[in-house]
Please model this.
Amino acid sequence: MSVLAYGVAAWLLFVGLWGLVQSRNLVHMVICLAIVQAATYVLLVAIGYRYGAVAPVFAGIRLGTVAVDPVVQALCLTDVVVGTTV
Amino acid sequence: MTRRARTRLFLVSAAVLAVVVLAGFGELPSFGHPAATLGAVLNRLAPPQGHITDVVTAVNFTYRGVDTLVEEFIFFAAVTGVVLLLAPLDDELADHASDAATGRWVPQTSDAVRVLALALVGPTILFGLYIVAHGHLTPGGGFQGGVVLATGVLLVYLAGEYTHLHGLYPDGFVEGVELGGASAFVLIGLVGLAVGGTFLASWGPLGRLGQLNSAGHVPLLNLSVGAEIGAGFVLLLSAFLRQTIVLRRHPPTRHRLGSS
Amino acid sequence: MNVLLGTVLILVAAVGTVVVVLRDPLRQALAVSLFGILLGIYFFSVQAIDVALSEIVVGAVALPLMILLALAKIRGGVQ
Model:
């Protein structure tokens, strides 16, 4: 499972870079850049995941329940916004 | 650089990168067992401290609020850049603003699309406002809700014509909203400076955990971000539409929109 | 749970590859939209709900819109 999650992130990174290098069309280049960014999202969020944990939103959930890492998700959120501006 | 040389250079550098990446990934904790403790600490700390149940929003707006401020300004700058780039040039005449501009055949929007879009405008805007307002309680927040709000405006365009969009949301008003959102964020931060001693310090009634009016200044920040993002996307949409539909550089030629 | 996660990851990798391989930007726009939704499902599966919401909102609405409008602008300007 580790191999799959991190492997997909690495695969997306290289596939995106390859498309970036091979592209002739500017719009195609920007889209491949978006794929590379998606690779970073996958990696970041995969790092924060904990088996059996819930989302870090405690509306209606008892406080103190084990949840996944919120810092990584906040980073990812900012990343997505910056990706949009690109 | 020729194509083959480029490919070969890429393969070499990709191989080097692959070695680095594999070495780095080897150090990562196995999937499902994170080693970081800051996240666990924040999960325990944020609800009692800030009376906020959505910890990710808490991190974005209180613990790392400055990052969000910079992110908003990146967005603001990008929108400004696009609007400036797409401003009408001297040799581009503003044709009469209608989808069926003379000489340009645009497929007529079907009635089904128009009715559906019209029906969805109200619920979409309501949903967008809900996401923005409840950002500190449930997943969501300013950015997500803002884009949904912009989608509601886009539906207005789909349901009608460009003139309707321009009439309901004139550029000056939308720009004012975006500016208001951006400055509100900074002003809220400055109030935090005045009250708490650091920029974006927490102020405002903390309220009870889980209530809509809790978490101090975070709902206000959410509202300002939502306003800015929503208005920014509407500006982008408006600028692009003006370029593709209204402005014409030469006498109109027979050109079908979207064909290859 | 593991099966879901594994399936989504493999789908993400597959659609990502398809996006890069496609040449026509118009088809790519649709593929990127699908990619965004798949990515959103992946984020849901790892309990990253805020990120999933942002990604779906951006990838299904904002990104294809920008691409399609950019394409229309480029084609409209060509004489």
